[in-house]
Amino acid sequence: MSHEKFKVCIDACNDSAAECEHCATACLNESDAAMQAKCIELDLYCADMCRMAAAFMARSDEHTIDFVNKFCALCAEICTTCADECGKHIHIKHCIKCAESCRKCSAECHNISTVNNLQTNSLDYFRNKVN
Q1: What Rg value do the Cα atoms of the chain yield, rounded?
Q2: Residues 70, 88: Cα–Cα separation, whole Å
Q3: Residue 19 Cα to chain centre, angstroms
Q4: What DSSP string describes 22-88?
Q5: Whole-angstrom Cα distance, residue 33 to residue 12?
Q6: Share of the chain above pLDDT 70, in %
Q7: Which long-range contacts (CB under 8 A, 24 or more apart) does 79-87 make?
Q8: When you count CB atoms within 10 A of the terminal residue's CB, does the N or C end of the chain come out lower?
Q9: Residue 122 pLDDT
C-alpha cells in the first residue's frame, strides 16, 4: 500500500499544522494574548493531531491503515473545532488563514476516514464470508 494515495491529505495536514503553529505564535504576540487563549490552545492541539495523522498516512501499511482511519476522523473533528474558534477572529489575518487551512484539512481527513472505513468494512465483510 503506497502513501501516495494520501498525498493530498498529507499535504493538507502538514499545511494545517504549519498554519496552526504560526497562528498560536502570532496570537501570543497580540496585545491581548489572554483573549486568544482558547485559539492558542486549539492551534497547538490541532497542529499535533495534523502531524500525527500525516505520519500515519505516510507509514501506510497493513499495520497502520486502521489507525489512519481513526486518526483522520479525529483530525477532522479537531480541525473543525480549531477552524470554528479561529474563524471568530475575523479581524485577525493569521486566524482567518489558519481557519481556512483547518477547514481544508478537515474535509480531506473526513474524506480519507470515510472512504477507508468503507473499504475496511467491506474487506472485513468479505473475509468473514470466505472464512
Answers
A1: 17
A2: 28
A3: 12
A4: HHHHHHHTSTTGGGGHHHHHHHHHHHHHHHHHHHHHHH-STTTHHHHHHHHHHHHHHHHHHHHHHHT
A5: 27
A6: 86
A7: 79/16, 79/46, 79/49, 79/50, 79/103, 79/105, 79/106, 79/109, 80/106, 81/42, 81/46, 82/20, 82/42, 82/43, 82/45, 82/46, 85/38, 85/39, 85/42, 86/23, 86/39, 86/42, 86/43
A8: C
A9: 41
For residue 15, what is its C-alpha cell? Answer: 499545511
Euclidean distance between the first and final Cα of the chain, in Å?
23
pTM value is 0.85
SS3 89: coil
The 10s digit of each residue's pLDDT in 53-110 is: 999 999 877 777 888 989 999 999 999 999 999 999 999 999 999 999 999 999 999 9
Q: Which residue type sits at 47? A: A
The cell for 18 is: 504549519
